[in-house]
Structures are given as structure tokens and as C-alpha cells.
Write a structure and sequence with these properties.
Blueprint lengths: L1 E5 L3 H12 L4 E5 L11 H16 L3 E10 L6 E2 L2 H16 L7 E12 L2 E13 L15 E3 L14 H7 L1 H22 L1
Parallel strand pairs: 1-2, 1-3
Antiparallel strand pairs: 3-4, 3-5, 5-6, 6-7
Helix pairs in contact: 1-5, 4-5
The structure holds inosinic acid (IMP).
Length: 193
């Protein structure tokens, strides 16, 4: 079984490839440039993108939209995370958080799959905190400043410091697991028909 993942982010593709591999699902990269909908919900952005991608490619495929939602900043940068990262980066976000005691934040991921039967959406999130300073070299985006809440993370490592921690607990891991479980079942039902 092979599925198309429409994304322009090679890091997302790499993470999805290794997570879905665990379910026997192989993925292919589809590089489609899609103008994203402006909306504060990752699910709505993913839904709009997958409809555009499917109408262009006319093949079953999925997309993923994600973002970092910082509580003390009323959810900023949220679905504008990629844009904000390009503008202010991790240094800028840490500057906005200088002196802020409530450092809670969550990463959210929405996977949207489309085929001839319509669209299905799967969401996942990961709660954590914005660190005091950048740490670690792995991953991408806000990984160096995000410390996930995890009982096995007593040393308060960021995603960028501990790739295995990210692979186990990330928002993308959670949305893709839901998607994979559903998809395995969906394929079985299809075969029966
Ligand atoms: P989009 O889903 O393409 O709109 O971009 C999401 C943006 O959120 C990325 O470009 C990153 O800046 C940020 N982001 C999403 N997931 C992660 C992650 O796993 N680690 C670090 N940053 C992330």
C-alpha cells in the first residue's frame, strides 16, 4: 500500500514516512504548492488544502497542517507558525516570552486525507512548555524551544535535543497514528466490497 503525502516540508515528510512505516504504509512525496486558507484551526486549513490538492492530482492523498499555540500569547503563532518562524524565528519568540511565567504551549497537527469518497480529518496535539533558551540541533522549526510534557522527560529536553522523545510524543505522531489506524481499517473494508 502506497499513499501520497502532499507537502513542501521535507522534515514533515521524513517524520511521516517513519511513523507510517510502522503500520506498513509506504508514502510517496507529492510536491504541490498550495496557497493556504487563513483560519485559526489546523483542521480547517488542512481540509481546504486537501480539497485543492485532490482536485488537482485526482488521486488519493493526504496533507498535514500544524502549528505551535502559545497560551500566554493567545495562541500565537498558531496556524501562522511557518510565516512567524520566517519573520522572527526562535529568537523572536523567546524575546516575546521574556519575563513571561506561564510558558505553556501546544503543538497541534491535523492530517486530512481525500479520495473519491470525500475528506477525513485526524487531529493530534502535544502539550509542553517554551524553554528559556534554545537547545538542540535535531528536527526543524520550533523544536529547539519546545519541551514536551512527558513523564520520561525529567531532564526537560527540547524536541531538538531528543529525537526519540519527539518521535514518541509529537502532535504529528498522534494525528498520523489516528490516520494510520483508520486507513488500515478503511482498506480492509474496501477490499470486502
Ligand atoms: P504548515 O503546517 O506548513 O503551515 O507549517 C507549520 C509550521 O509550524 C512549521 O513550518 C513550523 O514552523 C511549525 N511546526 C509544525 N510542526 C512542528 C514541529 O514538529 N516542530 C517544530 N516546528 C513545527
Amino acid at each position: 500500500m502506497s499513499l501520497r503525502f502532499a507537502t513542501s516540508n521535507r522534515h514533515k515528510f521524513g517524520e511521516a514516512k517513519s511513523i507510517l512505516n510502522g503500520y506498513g504504509i509506504k508514502i510517496e512525496h507529492l510536491n504541490l504548492a498550495i496557497d493556504e486558507l487563513r483560519n485559526e484551526s489546523c483542521a480547517r486549513v488542512a481540509e481546504a488544502s486537501v480539497k485543492i490538492a485532490h482536485s488537482r492530482a485526482r488521486k488519493p492523498l493526504f496533507v498535514e497542517d500544524s502549528g505551535l499555540f502559545v497560551r500566554a500569547l493567545n495562541g500565537f503563532p498558531g496556524t501562522y507558525s511557518a510565516w512567524a518562524f520566517g519573520k522572527i524565528g526562535n529568537e523572536g519568540l523567546l524575546r516575546l516570552m521574556r519575563g513571561v511565567r506561564d510558558r505553556r504551549a501546544s503543538f497541534v497537527s491535523a492530517v486530512a486525507y481525500a479520495d473519491e469518497n470525500g475528506v477525513n480529518i485526524f487531529e493530534g496535539s502535544c502539550e509542553g512548555k517554551i524553554s528559556a533558551r534554545m537547545a538542540g540541533k535535531n528536527g526543524f522549526g520550533y523544536d529547539p524551544i519546545f519541551v514536551p510534557d512527558d513523564s520520561h522527560n525529567s531532564s526537560q529536553k527540547t524536541f531538538a535535543q531528543d529525537g526519540a522523545l519527539k518521535a514518541r510524543t509529537s502532535h504529528r505522531r498522534r494525528s498520523l497514528e489516528k490516520f494510520a489506524n483508520w486507513h488500515v481499517d478503511y482498506q480492509k473494508q474496501k477490499k470486502k466490497r
